[in-house]
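Chapter review: from sequence to fold.
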Amino acid sequence: MSVLDNWKQWEDFLADRLHQAQNEGMSEGAISALALQIGDYLAEQVEPKNEQERILADLWSVADKEEQQAIANIMVKLVQNNGSR
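The token string follows.
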């Protein structure tokens, strides 16, 4: 089972990676840029596996770059607050 199959597993996976990056000293700007790159990759290469991912994919597809960056930043904020520690 892939971490993409279940929203909570995906959220926890992202939170773990975020906390690892922060602990290694990655700046918020670098994390934000990486989140945008991950969003682009997922939108282009990965088929959504659940309803939450479908909603994000649909929002991403109609957003301009500035809006995509906002979505990426919101995802970072979401996993900071809700993901596993």
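Two observations follow directly from the output. The chain has a mean pLDDT of 87. Residues 28-45 form the longest helix (18 residues).
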